[in-house]
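Hi R.,

Here are the chain sequences for the assembly we discussed:
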Amino acid sequence: MGMAYGHNHAWESVFSFPIGGLELLCDSVKIHNVNVEPQDGAKKLDMKDLLTWVRGNLIKERPEMFMKGDTVRPGILVLVNDCDWELSGQLTTTLEDKDVVVFISTLHGG
Amino acid sequence: MEEEAHAKPKKAMPRQCCVCNQRRAALKRPKTLDQICKECFYEVFEEEIHQDIVENQLFKPGERIAIGASGGKDSTVLAYVLSELNRRHNYGLDLFLLSVDEGITGYRDDSLETVKRNEIQYGLPLKVVSYKDLYGWTMDEIVKMIGLKNNCTFCGVFRRQALDRGAAMLKVDKVATGHNADDIAETVLLNILRGDIARLSRCTAITTGIYSPNAYRGFAREFIKDLERIRPRAILDIIKSGEDFRISTSTKMPEQGTCERCGYISSQKWCKACVLLEGLNRGLPKLGIGRSRGLNTDRNKDVKEISVAKSIESKQCGTLDF
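And here is the predicted structure of the full complex:
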């Protein structure tokens, strides 16, 4: 899979929505390779910035299916490099170049 | 060294797995709050299921067991775990995969493909039963007849019964269906909210699964996921409260009998599927949906015509009991 390299201070992440139909909110695309700039000149990008970015740039419809308040909706699992984000500080998890972030909805379908 | 420093830096927070103390923890178990790695999670998860199977004597050697397989995550995990434990601990079970094809264009195709992969991967024979074969109607045809409203009633009732009919064709002794803790907690909560005591006790009985489509299911699910965020054990506590629910012996419970038409279990004269099917075939698809109108009046008339025996009608039709 082709990976576009980011310019300076851009963090490149791969997003995926593998199960649960969350991709329906983003034109049915399951895997997104993206470059995200940290906000307001900050040096680091964290999950909070990322969710804001995803909501503004990837989610095409019904954002309330993805987010509640400033975080993901309860019932959506978030993995950063195959690790539950509860273990890395959730919204405060800092992201590095080439990190892989996965969102899995457990709300529908078994 | 140079390369190592460049390798993906470990996040500061994740700690070692509390079981093996070697690998990096990948998740926090809601049940114990233990931080645990992927490998150790599989191990304790499979061992706990084995213990539950043994303690509750769920299976006997030589039994034929159908695994309800939808192609989703719960039933795929179930198929994997049961075939793995059957081999590892010599349960001596004959396992089968049983799938229901509702006949919804573009919906089941993907998941049936997953089930076919399960068939090959775990070496389990697969049986697919379709609504068309069992009832003479596909879901597409039903929707064309009754519209988008209320079709969940048909699908839910028909699916539960289709599983049982498929099980009879396979001549299995038991059907195993995969539900996660969220599903069961949600069902406990809904049965409490509906005041459905009969099903409240049945829904946590270990070998019984129920299917109950409902509009407010989604709200209950969101509510329990909110609770879980505040207190991760909340989901398991709700299930426990359902298990511990005791009903005063003087409370009259609806009896579970059999449908006079098809012989399927039913707490009423005709099972829900037969009522719904009768409505479809007579061109009165509203029969069996909603409250006292339609079904009750119509069916009570039928019942009276057939016999004047005691009415086992004990609840409103809207409660969707099987």
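The beta strands of chain A are 11-16, 31-36, 45-46, 67-68, 71-72, 76-80, 83-84, 94-95, 99-105. The two ends of chain A are 29 Å apart (CA to CA).

Let me know if anything looks off.

Best,
T.
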